[in-house]
Amino acid sequence: MPFKLIVNGREHTLDVEPDTPLLWVLRDELGLKGTKFGCGAGLCGACTVHLNGQPARSCSTPVEMADGGEITTIEGLSSDGQLHPLQQAWIEQGVPQCGYCQSGQIMTAAHLLATHPSPDREQIVTAMTGNLCRCGTYPRIVAAVESVAGGVGQYQPAGEGA
Amino acid sequence: MSMNRRDFLKVSTSASGGLMLALNLPGCASVQTGYEEETGEWKANAWLELTTEGDVTFTLDRVEMGQGTYTGLTTLIAEELDVRPETIQVRFAPVAPEYRNPLIGLQLTGGSTSMAAGWQPLREAGASARWMLVMAAARVWRVEPAECSTQDGYVKHPNGLDSMPYRKLVELANREVIRGDVPLKPRAQWKYIGQQVGSRLDAEAKSTGTAVYGIDVELPGMVYAAMTRSPRYGGKALRFNRDRIRAMPGVVDAFVTERGVAVVADRYWRARKAQAALDVEWDFTDAIALSNEDVFEHYRRATNDDPGENERVEGDVEGVTANAEVLVEAEYEQPYLAHATMEPMNATAWYRKDMMEVWAPTQAPDLGRIAAARHTDLSPDQVTVHTTFLGGGFGRRLTQDFVEEAALVAYQVKVPVKLIWSREEDTRHGFFRPAMLHRMTGSLSGGQLTGWDHQIAGPQVLDWYVRNAAPAQYPWAPKFLYSTLGRVGLLVEGIATPKDISAIEGAVGYPYNVPNIRVRHTHTDPGVPITWWRSVGYSHNGFAVETFMDELADKAGEDPLDFRLRMLAEEPRHRRVLERAAELADWRQPPPEGRARGVALFKSFGTYVAQVVEAGIEHGEIRVYKVVCSVDCGQVVNPAIVEDQMTGGILFGLSAALYGDITFDNGEVRQSNFHDYRILQMHQTPEMVVDIINSEESPTGVGEPGVPPVIPALGNALFALTGRRQRKLPLKA
Ligand code: FES
Ligand code: FES
User: Fold this and answer.
1) Which CATH class is domain B294-336+434-461+500-722?
2) What is the CATH number of domain A2-77?
3) Is B343 helix (H, G, I), strand (E, B) or coil?
4) Distance between CA B499 and CA B522 in Å, rounded?
5) What is the pLDDT of residue B379?
């Protein structure tokens, strides 16, 4: 049964089994490898994307539930070769160690800033604490989010409800 | 080790006419002791190349797994070559004998060795290349080389006006001959070393989702595999419902392998769904059946029956403990631990006639070749291993089981295949940090520590590792001898393999001045697969030594800080980090209401670390409020990376202290995913203060030394808080 997804502004029709997690559709059918597999059970956040403006764990989202939805992945966060301010901050603050969790971290942070442009530290921690980082980059993540808090206006996750 | 430049640097012309410097980087690691470097031909293991197009490429023989090698080593070259670090392209080395870490004898990254090994040779390589460019320019301009200077990839004329880019000079520079030693820049002129310059060189790729990890490898016509392993280590698959599985949608093949049942499908999810329908009959004849209680029972019996090998003896410990005024005894239990790298184990392999290519996030590509060849008709030199970025390593990816699996599936299906472990599989079928038992005896007289007796019971990492490693050290050996070689390695330890200090490291280096010391190892192995784990033996010895020091201080009625300091009169670097950490943590002031502080000091991999933890108990849970860390790792190359590795190490250690526990139930691992093998989350992250000692000593590693002290420091804080001593990890509220 074909499904329709609008990913990073482009429409795709996909013929996959309905229970296929969105994660594997993005990675293997659409070649968007920036979204990572960490636990497959909604426990780590490595696979976080935006689905209709909300952060979603793509490993635990069957593609049928995303049918017709608008999705933003890490690849769609920057526009016209312009890095998202969070990505810029991540680079400036030298956040990534192994880097594997960072797509998910950035996607969660991007949603936070889109909905709360000037979060305080507690709001940042509350929003981010579901994203695990085995390398322990948490302090630099907080610093990076704080460095752009208040300064992000241009990026809005695609779809309603943001 | 003193080194002459000639011993590790050779200059040649690259295929494209560029300037090529071949280097031989010495290595060192926890497995090196007792290993005699092979005499014979000089071999390079890293290359610096300057092309006529202006590219500067550094081919690195170490892998990048988050520890910052990529940035740190490049900085050394950039400094002396006088180019900006970000302009140097870094390539991961393909597998070749030339890339082997000479002192380990294998190509691997571990033991916090990269910076210590690269410090001198990489700067000298950069300096030599720069000097050859300067000489070439001076010849063109007919001036004295010594009067020329360089800046950001240009040689500058003494007149201060003219300059020439390096790329125009590389061809000429090729003909220059270096006589004598090229001086290195004095400290005062450093632009990049020790500076907070720019960012990590790989930060952009890792912030935009473009860095390619093993799991991201994509090949034409690729299929996906899922492996079902014996629920109990050592079990073998006999048969399964093959017809049903093969009839499932997308299934390409399904078969029994040496590692379990492989299901191969055109899509990952289809492989997983077919796997879920598997009904496997296992042969558990050789499988482990133990439970956690058995492991520690086994250790207890072993410590009683076998006094163990003396690893360090000073004075007469038995005499002094027999007549002790106060005798203190304690036994510490530490569990098996998983690595839980964020990227689960995976590998991609493609078998074609007489060759195989493997793409893998591996810490030891050299061993990957052997693992890949093991169940095929290929010899290791017919296997090419491409190393990708690693989504965490922590020692797990030194063991090549995941490569072996992908290869044996690829050998069967003859098309490119990617094998990805689920998180559950990754947690359950790992190679673990060994569970260990420590028996401690201390004697006090008049408040003085007069005797220290430390007995360690447990396996050694090489017991397991050598089965993979031995063939790499005997490349001439036919494959059917591999398993024999593994056993030979076990039998004649120190000849076939280096002496394994993984069980005793950190314990033999006990730094406190005590007249009677004995450290012993009772070597015993319950049969659970093990490997290196961030900070290896230091991780459990750190807990045993520094918790027992705290117990002794308590029995002596002395402040734990003063008790330690008094016995460190001849250890200035230990003293200094301990004093700094205590000062920054306000040790002499009472902690805030409801909190307590604990301290620990541990040297590992040549690096000195002291930490003070401030903790409390809230709503029945342990809360860590603050960790102050003082570190002396010699000359600092990149302060930001040192800080990252300390804070990362602290959080890694806290995860182990609070939650780390792989438990066995009749041979099966109980834990499965992040809900029951927990790692620290952001809201639990304490305030962390990292103080880096300003030092001119040679640099030492930082990837691991942040881990060991935090575990006992937290335990000691909880003792100060509750008066109850916890001798078993993980800690409980
Ligand atoms: S992979 Fe989706 S939450 Fe971990
Ligand atoms: S950077 Fe390695 S898991 Fe977060």
Assistant:
1) alpha beta
2) 3.10.20.30
3) coil
4) 15
5) 87
Q: What is the pLDDT confidence band of residue B177, given thresholds at 50, 70 and 90?
A: confident
The answer, yes or no, to whether any atom of ligand 2 lies below 6 A from the CB of A134, is yes
Continuous segment of H or E residues that includes residue B621: strand B621-632
Which residues of chain B make contact with A134, given a CB cutoff of 8 A? 340-342, 392, 394, 652, 679
State the ipTM, two decimals.
Answer: 0.94
pLDDT band at B209 (very low <50, low <70, confident <90, very high): very high
For residue A95, the chain B residue with the least C-alpha distance is B203
Structure tokens belonging to residue B82: 């006088």
CATH code, residues B214-285+345-420: 3.30.365.10
Q: B209 and A103 in contact by Cβ < 8 A? A: yes
Per-residue pLDDT of B490-521, as tens digits, reads: 333 333 345 678 899 999 999 999 999 999 99
pLDDT, tens digit, for every residue of B523-543?
999 999 999 999 999 999 999
What are the percentages of helix, strand and coil residues in chain B, rounded to 5?
35, 25, 40
**What are B495's two structure tokens?**
């000849």
For residue B582, the Cα-to-chain-centroid distance in whole angstroms is 28
Q: With a 6 A CB cut-off, is A101 part of the ligand 2 pocket?
A: yes
Q: Which residue among B207, B249, B423 sits closest to A40, beta carbon to beta carbon?
A: B423
What are the boundaries of each domain within chain A? Answer: 2-77, 85-148
Residue B54 to residue B278: CA distance in whole angstroms: 56
CATH number of B5-192: 3.30.365.10
Tokens standing for residue B396: 């797990």
B84 lies within 8 A of chain A by CB? no
Q: Is the CB of B361 under 6 A from ligand 2?
A: no
Q: Do A43 and B210 touch (CB under 8 A)?
A: no
- Determine the residue of chain B that is closest to A78 in CA distance: B208
Task: Work out which ligand 1 atom sits closest to the CA atom of A132.
Answer: 4
Domain boundaries in chain B?
A: 5-192, 214-285+345-420, 294-336+434-461+500-722
Looking at residue B123, its pLDDT comes to 87
Quick check: B207 and A90 CB within 8 A?
Answer: yes
CATH of domain A85-148: 1.10.150.120
CA distance B533 to B110: 10
* Span B87-128, pLDDT tens digits: 887 776 554 444 444 334 444 445 556 676 678 878 888 888
pTM: 0.85
Domain B294-336+434-461+500-722 in the same topology as domain B5-192: yes
